[in-house]
Sequence to fold (487 residues):
Amino acid sequence: MFLTITTTGTPERPATDLGYLLHKHPDKAQAFSTSYGTAHVLYPEAETGRCTAALLLEVEAVALVRRGKGKGRGGAPDAALAQYVNDRPYAASSLLAVALSSVFSSAMKGVCNARPELPGQARPLRVEVPALPARGGPDLVRKLFEPLGWTVTAAPVPLDTEFPDWGDSRYVSLVLESDALTLAEALRHLYVLLPVLDDAKHYWVAPDEVDKLLRVGEGWLPAHPEQRLITSRYLSRRWSLTRQATERLELVRLAETDDSEVEEIDNAVEAETETEEKPTPLAVQRREAIVTALRQSGAARVLDLGCGQGQLVQTLLKDPAFTEIVGVDVSMRALTIASRRLKLDRMGERQASRVQLFQGSLAYTDVRLKGYDAAVLSEVIEHLDLPRLPALEYAVFGSARPRTVLVTTPNVEYNVRWESLPAGHVRHGDHRFEWTRAEFRAWAEAVAGRHGYGVGFVAVGPDDPEVGPPTQMAVFTMTSPKEAKAA
Ligand code: SAH
Fold:
């Protein structure tokens, strides 16, 4: 049974950082002994541009039985032979999850002493599990992974390729892709969801499993739409444990989305990215500049792409000129906080009909984004790796094609004016790049030219005579309604 994790990179953020993150050197093949057999970690490829780590677990079926824990599906007593002849050695399963957590335990905790900045950074990830037992089939696989920000490809594996009439096996071949997750998040998702899909836990579920589930599920399980199914299957349908976990998760969810915490997060973000001078925080000035530009464009139906925690959506809702406001983000956690901030569940029908939040990635075209008057990308582009930018460009300017597009991004020249920012640092740990005014202008003009738009520029915040404003905004207006050819 095996699984691969691939990342891509650039000379500035080499893909081989994966070795640091996993605490396993890319040049070595290593073997670890686990309770159920030998786990091998090796790197089929390790280049700056692309790096893949493979985890291969060689299960020793006899060890499994000797441990007395080769429990069959649903807890039914196993026939003697079934204990030895089963799919455990071949299919990714709960055993693989256990191996993941023992071989990559620091990575799963997000610890990297050699490079402490790495674990907090999201990076392009592709996880492949060629044979995943999936009770519930590809549909359930999607329902479990998509809300977490993964793009899912789950193909059923036929029982026998020579006899297609026999239908599909209970295995799927799974590919997960995301640009928005950290490696630690990815490993925690796998650690919980592989056994949930397998639905045949191999070891007796002890009460401390509830603690483990809550710990590993932190930040994603409380708000997951399939939380009940995940909890119940993970805990092998032991009702008392499941109930206990569900109640505790509900408490976590409430605490996570509590208004006071939303404010705290806001303040933290503000403190991190904005000036100490009190008057008007830069984030507020940015929203004012965006609203002004939207009003001038005459837009009524507006997309907020990469809406984060919904501050702009909230501002737009106060202005009746905006009849429909759609917030899109790849982060489920951000959307949960946004929905709580907007009090979507307590909103009157009229207000509620004006606003919508949904999860989506701007790195892919999406028909749901077509037909709007305007789209805002406020402080979003710098969160994508540069090589992904053409994909966003195509999704917004080539496919969605609103009449007006506003893009804001930091002006890196201004960074010398931030007193608290050490020289050469970007403003936020997750910024993949920050551009000068000339760089931003060159990008925006090229995009406009490729897709039939005109573009103008607006300074946001104090326009310093030497280094310019802290935030730069491009205002794109469609000039030719026909889709221009991508260059
Ligand atoms: N627009 C907000 C938030 C900016 S932070 C503001 O101006 O305050 C950047 C946001 O972009 C985050 O919420 C992040 O989850 C989102 N994001 C990053 N990559 C994305 C992608 N590929 N697709 C959609 N959203 C993305």
User: Anything to note?
Assistant: Residues 179-180, 306-308, 311, 329-331, 334, 361-363, 378-380, 383-384 surround S-adenosyl-L-homocysteine (CB under 6 Å). The longest helix spans residues 239-256. The domain at 2-203 is CATH 3.30.1610.20 (c-terminal autoproteolytic domain of nucleoporin nup98).
